[in-house]
Every structure is written in structure tokens, then in C-alpha cells.
Amino acid sequence: MTRFMHLLASALILLMVSACGASTDTPESSLTAFYEAVAENDAKTALEHVSLADIKESEMGVAREKIKMMVGNFHAKAEEKGGIEKVEVLNVATNEEKTEAEVEVQVTFGNGKSEKNTDDMVKEDGEWKISF
């Protein structure tokens, strides 16, 4: 029964993201889409929400693999806590030019516990991406 509830919660999260179109036109929508991809262990989609602008071409392959590993590790830790139940944006602070942002989120897990994270975002070609 617990597995069924987890699958149902995951399906609802996917529906919410699909309804929003997984937009990247705001820092919060891009960051939420990233966390939803992590919840589904979808490293390819998560990677689409990460800035690779500062990575040298010769290091791109290694950087992508490291990010995929990070997504897998975060997904595994989230699964140990019952999966990601909800991602709530608490605060968004952008610079004057609206090209950089700091986004504070609270991630709530299936076991009822939550964690706050602050992620740096950067706008690239009209899309907001996470800057590591």
C-alpha cells in the first residue's frame, strides 16, 4: 500500500509539472522542474536546467557525468525519505538586471520531513538555469 501511495504522489507531481509546462521563464519554475526531474531520477531533464556556460568544452563530458551522479545521489537520498512530496519556493531574490537569482526552496519528503535549500540561478538565452 505504501508503494502505491508513493507512485500516486509521483504521478501527481508529474501532472502538476506537465500542467505548468515545465517552464523555464522564471527562476522558480526552472528550479521546480529540476527538482521534479530529480524526483523521477531523470538526469537528462535535470541537466537541461543546469548552466554549463562556464564549463570548458574539453571538460563538458566530465561535468555532465558529475551532474548526473549528483542527480542520482539526491534521488537516492530522497527515496530513503519517502521520495519528494512537494517543492515549495519560499523566496526569490534577483539582481537589478534580472540575470541572476537566489532561490530558497523547501523540499518536503514522503516521511513528512523537509529541508531548505538555496540555489543560485542564472538566465541564459532567456531561460533560467541552476548555477553550481
How many separate helices? 4
The largest sheet, given as strand count, sense and whether it forms a barrel, is: 4 strands, antiparallel
User: Considering DSSP H and I runs of 4 or more, what fraction of the residues is helical?
Assistant: 40-55%
CA-based gyration radius: 15 Å
Order of helices and strands: HHHHEEEE
Q: How many E strands?
A: 4
Sequence stretches where pLDDT stays below 50 over 5 or more residues = 3-21
Task: Please state how the strands of the largest beta sheet are arranged side by side.
Answer: 1-2-3-4
- The 3D shape can be described as flat
Overview of this protein structure:
The longest helix is centred in the middle third of the chain and has 21 residues, at 60-80. It contains four helices and four strands, in the order H-H-H-H-E-E-E-E. The chain has a four-stranded antiparallel beta sheet, covered by helices on one side. It is α+β, with helices and mostly antiparallel strands and 132 residues long. Helix 1 (2-20) runs antiparallel to helix 2. The model is unreliable at 3-21 (pLDDT under 50). It has helices at residues 2-20, 27-39, 43-48, 60-80; strands at residues 84-94, 100-109, 114-124, 127-130.
Q: In a few lines, what is going on in this structure?
A:
The chain is α+β, with helices and mostly antiparallel strands. It is built from 4 helices and 4 strands; from the N terminus they run H-H-H-H-E-E-E-E.
Task: Produce the secondary structure layout.
Layout: H1 2-20, H2 27-39, H3 43-48, H4 60-80, E1 84-94, E2 100-109, E3 114-124, E4 127-130
Antiparallel strand pairs: 1-2, 2-3, 3-4
Helix pairs in contact: 1-2
